Amino acid sequence: MNELWTEKYRPKDLEGYVFQNTDQLEQIATWVVQGSIPHLLLSGAPGVGKTTLAKILINQLNIDEYDVLEINASRENSVDTIRDKITGFVQTMPFGDFKIVLLDEADYISPNGQAALRGVMEMYAKTARFILTCNYPNRVIPALHSRCQGFHIDKIDKDRFKNRIEKVLTEEKVKFTSDVVEMYVDATYPDLRKCLNLIQMNSIENELRQPSANDKSSQDWKLSVVALFKEGRINDGRKLMCSSVRPEEMEEMYRFLYDNLELWTKDTLKQDDAIIIIRNAMVNIPVAADQEINLSACLAELSRLV
User: Fold this and answer.
1) Does residue 255 carry a pLDDT above 70?
2) Terminal C-alpha separation, the chain
């Protein structure tokens, strides 16, 4: 099986990582020179590079592989994980100066689990550092925020995002057109990881294929929505969105609408109107019974701007 492009093109050092904030770059470079870091809380949208930055830090600090514990907190998020797995790891002496616990998606840890983690971070601060990543920092308790240096990872510019995808396709010798790439970018931005996975899956016989708008079995349904909107089939796209979005995806759905304002209009003033419509819809994200009505009303308002 071919190597996953998400891993093949993952930056390995600070030079290869795209920082949106130069102050963050200077701070992290200083830590690398000093050979130490504080507890960190890296936040940002999915696929913007939080875990990549954490792994770069671990690599450039020359942390022994036996001194690193990586946990996906979306799967292991109970108090037992904190008490047994994490505490058992950090209470033994490190091979180097300190151990690192990388907790991906820490916002999924239960409130009791986060409270237990707070105590572990305090008790073993001399011999262990914790790097937490999350999509929603508001779901992380204040006690953990106060113990971590917070870093918000901003999404990269959409043009740079598209250029990155085209560069990967070029290096993989995959033929593509700008319009097809743009479809994948619109459906996945700012999640670079998801975009790379999709283009790899749809690169067949060294050519990037445009997914069928009706083929929901082999692609993210957002691709179908983007395709329908670009074809001018706004009503069909609205119906697909309303029938596909799950209650837990409402916030993500409105972010998708916000990130793709150009689907509704190229007019800057009308884009300002679109932002207001989307924000109003997000004020009270409805319960499951009302979500289709709420989303349909929002999309109907946006459609008037096309």
Assistant:
1) yes
2) 43
